[in-house]
Amino acid sequence: MSFDIALSLRRGERSLEYAFTAGSGLTALFGPSGAGKTSLLDAIAGLLRPDKGRITVGGTTLFDSAAHIDVKPQKRHCGYVFQDLRLFPHISVRRNLAFGRKAYGGLDWDHTLDLLGIGGLLERMPATLSGGEAQRVAIGRALLSTPDFLLMDEPLASVDAARRDEILRLVERIRDEMRLPILYVSHDRAEVERLAQTIVPV
Amino acid sequence: MSFDIALSLRRGERSLEYAFTAGSGLTALFGPSGAGKTSLLDAIAGLLRPDKGRITVGGTTLFDSAAHIDVKPQKRHCGYVFQDLRLFPHISVRRNLAFGRKAYGGLDWDHTLDLLGIGGLLERMPATLSGGEAQRVAIGRALLSTPDFLLMDEPLASVDAARRDEILRLVERIRDEMRLPILYVSHDRAEVERLAQTIVPV
Amino acid sequence: APARQSPVVLAAASLQESMNAAADAWARKGHPRPRVSFAASSALARQIASGAPADVFVSADEPWMDDIQNKGLVRKGTRVSFLRNDLVLVAPRNSNVRLRIGRNMPLVQALGNGRLAIADPAGVPAGIYGKQALTRLGVWPSVQGRLAPGDSVRGALALVSRGAAPLGIVYATDARADPGVRVVGIFPAASHDPVSYPVTTLAASRNPEGEAFRRYLLSSEGKAIFRRFGFGTK
Amino acid sequence: MQPLSPAEWEVLVLSLKVGGVAIVATLPVAFGLAWMLARWRFPGKVLIDAVVHLPLVLPPVVTGWLLLLAFSPNAPFGAFLERTLGLTFLFRWTGAALAAGVMALPLMVRAMRLSLEGVDRRLESAARTLGAGPWRTFIRVTLPLSANGVLAALVLGFARSVGEFGATITFASNIPGETQTLPLAIYSALQIPGSDSQVVRLAGLSVLLSVAALVLSEWLIRRSGQQRGRHVI
Amino acid sequence: MQPLSPAEWEVLVLSLKVGGVAIVATLPVAFGLAWMLARWRFPGKVLIDAVVHLPLVLPPVVTGWLLLLAFSPNAPFGAFLERTLGLTFLFRWTGAALAAGVMALPLMVRAMRLSLEGVDRRLESAARTLGAGPWRTFIRVTLPLSANGVLAALVLGFARSVGEFGATITFASNIPGETQTLPLAIYSALQIPGSDSQVVRLAGLSVLLSVAALVLSEWLIRRSGQQRGRHVI
Ligand SMILES: Nc1ncnc2c1ncn2[C@@H]1O[C@H](COP(=O)(O)OP(=O)(O)OP(=O)(O)O)[C@@H](O)[C@H]1O
Ligand SMILES: Nc1ncnc2c1ncn2[C@@H]1O[C@H](COP(=O)(O)OP(=O)(O)OP(=O)(O)O)[C@@H](O)[C@H]1O
Ligand code: MOO
Ligand SMILES: [Mg+2]
Ligand SMILES: [Mg+2]
Predict the structure, then answer these.
(1) ABC transporter domain: from which residue to which, for each copy (chains A, B) (predicted)?
(2) How many whole angstroms from its chain centre is CA D111?
(3) Residue E85 forms contact with B (CB below 8 Å)
(4) pLDDT band at D146, cuts 50/70/90?
(5) I need a labelling partner for C66 at 20 to 30 A (CA). Which of A18, B37, D100, E95 fits?
């Protein structure tokens, strides 16, 4: 079971509830704007504490209010592509990509940069990137951190069609060869239908 | 003639050249990530000074290096939906929307909020908005400023399908009824084909 | 024999030049030159009361010396008042003000619409003496609202020599050293408590050089140095 | 604690007046300088920066002395001010305020500069496209976005004004009711043996004054902070 | 200008030593306090804020006196430090550094606090998801993002240290070669009528010292600013 989620959290005055399980492969979160997709990803990453509930990913319990389990964000080993990217503005693209990198395992550096088309941007500062370039760097940073699972929040929103196809193939490979649980938010039906084993409406 | 552009500008080490004219209606800029779409929009808005060239929109010359014309950004009356949104973080959604508002003409306030589905967000601060909500507020802010022309940089990247359709209809109405020149950047072929009278590859 | 160490001497700031001259003379006689710390007497007395490792203290007035003596910090039998100073009225060098110092002198008139520079009469010794003198001469009530109190005698002196104040009350030694002012008159000695500078060796002093330097200050050779700078000696 | 004596009241009210006028008058000057240092690049910028820092670097008495040289009615500049604007500083509370303002200047400039450097310029360009000229952009975007720095400048400046001693006594003298602010009254008391309790009382007043300013500013910071909202982790 | 006399060299070197040690020793304390004030919320926070501001609010002489009360060998705390760590401050250059550090503290805290409040916390959460614990996040994200504030704190603190007079002379006294920093030497020169040229010379040295610090900091600011890049308008 890749994701086993049952939790409730509060955003402003609204209270949001989530409950689903998803088998192996890629799980797409699908729902209108403001439905609470990003909030769920934040909770799974450990950046937002649910009021109560349980979060299990790939068999590991990350949060359980009943059992007083709350794994720290840095121990959850998630590769999170933020909707708002959050590249570190004070370091180069290269150092952004290397930030979460581990010495062992994971994707090949050169190959990944190549696929994302960001090999030429390594010495640039994030503020000089175009929208799509920044988004691809954010994807690269998450992938290269050798995560145990992936959280991707509209990762291809500003990526052009040709590149989008290549990146989707990379995601598929990660899903199939590395067998990482992936939670994927997208508004693009076609994208979701192509990638997802499970579709969770929010 | 809605857009008559011929200019060159520098970004980092790269030199970008643009030359096209577009008739009335909506002009779509189509091109891979990093091609220079945002740079062109910035130049038309007056936020980036071209090395040389000419910018004419709806018959008004906004920039002409030969004639030493360089209209100030605040006098260009463009409604710019930024790729990075740029909502003012220190004021409420209501005051963001009212920032550029003029006493006369333009779109109806209530109706526009309704279409964008942001009527319930007026008292919220931008930092509390979801990605799609923020994007719709950014669109609203540009539309409500009673612009002479629109620059829209991937305005629907994080907007869900249902809402997207409504907003596209609004854009069509603006294009047809108010006859505003619109320069529209998108990676979505379907969107572009539906909206554009002219497609300019970058 | 182990090398003799420099004693630490705490001296009122108005003794700056003369005490340095005395320390130099003492050093020329083959002694380690005292390390002299100049500050307001009040600050020095507080340091002594806090256990500062010093050997000799020269105060610009008696009350602070009394204060540390009452706290048992003065070495018995070493407190001596050895210097005197006069209190004078000064004007900027190019001023043509004339005034005879005496009872009910027209000081206010002489000020015109200016102010009288003086060290703070609320606490700084020179200001206290000045207030005494003006009171006994009967002009304090009229001039009380026309003062420009400074943080020290030096502050008052600067106001006069810069022309910011038409008249000021300072010590004779200050007036003598500053070419920017001229002495209008000397306050009669009877009009204020004697301006006297007591010296003492401190009870906590462990350095015999300190006591030796104090004795030197009191010697005729030592006193001569201070007379050169305009002090009176006792 | 005993109630305040009339003399103590006088000192307190004067300190408030001097400190208040000092920072209010210095604020626009300091902001202008902060703006210049944060936004402009020109040869000699470090020189201006250095002049702004002077009152911090020099012993306060020297600053007071320099003020005396510049603003006394004997000096050309001081005479000019008196003749044209009727402004006199020497031995006046205005002089105490001037001294306090000058001493507060470097702190205020730095706080505001730091905030200005943190303002996202992309938001200013957004305001421009929405029809706001440079001035309106400044008032409605830049200034509120650097409000924390302005607030910090006010607090630092006020605290410095309330504590300023050396330049004031040298330049404006220590005249009860006119230029004798709290630090000057404290200094007078410090000169008298055995007057520690009076010193402590007056120092307590200074502290109260600035705690009040601090509480106010913390409240304002918190208010603006809450508005920006959405903290993660 | 004449070359420096040996006595002037001594004063200059001592000022550098005192100022340098003061800000280096104060920096971590100030950063800790800035962090607390920027990030934590707890009852009594304003109290800590007030204590930090004390040296700004109180006349320096009072601060020196309070230091005397706390750190003199007659005081319990001072005696304790002497007994256990062999630290003595009275009449030592260490005392001058302590006084300078205490006086610089409020300025340093405020500058760093201002920068910390400007750090985008979302970047810190991004670092956490990338496996960085709180400490690593601090070192690699928070600290560099608030580098401007740290730099400003160093400049302000150093300038303040170079200019600090009242607390030093009251606490550490005015001993040539040990505690006589530039401002104290200037004070001594000021006591001698007609020694204006000596005062100007020494004041010039102070100014040079801090101009050097300023130039260095401007250069560092510019460097980091260039890196962040992409200015619009
Ligand atoms: N300051 C800079 N230094 C160097 N290169 C820059 C700078 N600013 C922009 N660029 C480069 O200029 C090119 C054009 O950028 P622009 O933002 O216009 O692209 P774009 O077409 O909008 O791309 P996207 O679809 O990804 O948003 C990009 O390759 C970008 O990396
Ligand atoms: N601090 C807050 N105060 C009030 N409401 C909040 C706050 N933070 C988030 N919300 C609301 O919570 C809801 C869920 O937000 P979330 O960011 O999870 O949406 P989302 O599904 O990711 O939407 P999108 O597709 O637009 O990104 C939104 O309606 C948002 O406005
Ligand atoms: O030398 Mo004093 O103690 O300022 O009168
Ligand atoms: Mg979202
Ligand atoms: Mg772009």
Answers:
(1) 1-202
(2) 11
(3) no
(4) very high
(5) E95
List, for residues C57-94, the tens digit of each pLDDT value.
999 989 999 999 999 999 999 999 999 999 999 999 99
What's the fold here for domain A3-201?
Rossmann fold (3.40.50)
| Pair E203, E186: CB distance under 8 Å | yes
Amino acid letter, residue D200:
V
Whether there are 3 or more C-beta pairs closer than 8 Å between C and B is: no
Phi, psi of A152 (to 5 degrees): -125, 115
- H or E element that contains D162: helix D147-163
**Ligand 2 atom 5 nearest Cα:** A12
Tell which atom from ligand 2 comes closest to the C-alpha of B132. Answer: 26
From the CB coordinates, do chains A and E have 3 or more pairs under 8 Å?
yes
Q: Sheet containing C147-150: give its strands across.
A: C147-150, C116-119, C167-171, C87-92, C181-186
Q: How far is D72 from chain C (nearest CA, A)?
A: 6
* Domain regions of chain B by residue span: 3-201
Place of tokens 């910011």: C164
Give the span between the Cα atoms of E171 and E95, in whole angstroms.
7
Does B129 contact ligand 2 (Cβ within 6 A)?
Answer: yes
Give Cα A174 to chain centroid, integer Å.
12
Of the candidates C38, C34, C29, the one whose C-alpha atom is nearest the C-alpha of residue C5 is C34
Based on DSSP, count helices (H) and strands (E) in chain D, helices before strands.
Answer: 12, 0
E232 vs B73: CB contact, 8 Å cut-off?
Answer: no
Q: What is the DSSP letter of E2?
A: P
At residue E230, does pLDDT exceed 60?
no
Phi and psi for E75 in degrees, rounded to 5? -85, 150
For residue A129, the 8-state DSSP code is S
pLDDT surpasses 80 at D100: yes
Q: Say what angle helices B109-116 and B131-143 make with each other, to 10 degrees.
A: 150
Query: How far apart are alpha carbons E211 and D56 in whole angstroms?
Result: 12
Q: Which residue has the tokens 């918190």?
A: D222
With H, G, I as helix, E, B as strand and everything else as coil, classify residue B144: coil
Predicted structure pTM score: 0.91
Residue E107, Cβ density class (10 Å: 0-12 exposed, 13-18 middle, ≥19 buried): buried
Q: What is the DSSP string of E187-231?
A: HHHHHSTT-HHHHHHHHHHHHHHHHHHHHHHHHHHHHHHHHH---
Strand order in the sheet with B69-70: B14-22, B3-11, B52-57, B60-64, B69-70
ipTM: 0.89
Residue D229: predicted pLDDT:
44
- For residues B178 and B192, give the distance between their C-alpha atoms in angstroms, rounded to a whole number: 20
Interface contact D229, partner A, CB < 8 A: no
Tokens for A103, please give them: 């010495």
CA of B31 to the centre of ligand 5 (A): 10
Residues with CB under 6 A from ligand 1: A 128-133, 158; B 11-12, 14, 33-39, 83; E 229-230
CA distances from C24 to B35, C14, E5, E180 (A): 80, 17, 17, 18
* Residue C3, min C-alpha distance to chain E (Å): 19
